[in-house]
Amino acid sequence: MEPSAVREGGVERLRPGWMTVLAVLFFTAFVVAFVSDLLIPAARGTEVWFGIELHGPLAIATAPLHWAWFALAAWAFWTGRTWIVPWAAGYLFYVALSHVIWSQASPNGRGWPIGLVQAAVISGLGYFLLCIHELEGPSR
Fold it and tell me: What is the pTM of this model?
């Protein structure tokens, strides 16, 4: 994928293709979460934080935190902000831990062994993201 030009601090540089892909993925997550939380009653009623399901008013109150994170990450990747990479990797590690907890704690979970498999895959993505970032060179 060809890099795209971005401006940061008055300097034009190239945004790597992988950042464009992540920008699109985070923007899609933002749109899907925003629309489903507003328009689908079943989605509106549940949020998961640290592997624990929140329901009702607490879920509704915390949903904008997910929207804000997805929107911020989409913007940062689209504009080529390299500081977002370790934050996104950290988010993936957080999601991995949350899957282990949710798989055991939720009645909808399938038990901790499946949670560990999910966590390994998601953590692997976080590690891969950090490796790609490191290959790009020093932080800009």
Answer: 0.84
